[in-house]
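Example (one chain per record):
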Amino acid sequence: MAEVGADIESICGKCGDVWHVVVAKVGNQIAKVQCKMCGGLHRHRPPNGSTARSTSRSTGRVARSSGGGRKTRGTSKSAAPLIQPNLDKPPQSYSIKQTYAPGDRIEHPRFGSGVVEMSVGPQKIQVFFTTGRRVLAHEHTAS
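Predicted structure:
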């Protein structure tokens, strides 16, 4: 069974993407996942149409309608980054192929300007944006 922080396939009700990260477990069951595409948090929905998908369908609708705002869903807001940006280096355009270090400034096409706070696993970084923190992939090479 996948551990917290592991990549997993799960269907996102918001954007339809299947690539997610496990963010919470209860016992051996995956409780919550976060979509790598849109950042949405939801229950694990296996892509092969198991019963977990049908039982969480109505819950997903309630979460979307009462969410308050799509921009901040699935993010952790804070007034400042955990680490100071490295002002000696210019901001870099975000690319999944690039390697980033804490303090690096990046420009993401969707989330805007951000500061890399830390590595949260192999090929994953936590980035502070004004709209919230996001976990992004980096150091990926073409197969």
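Caption: The longest helix spans residues 51-65.
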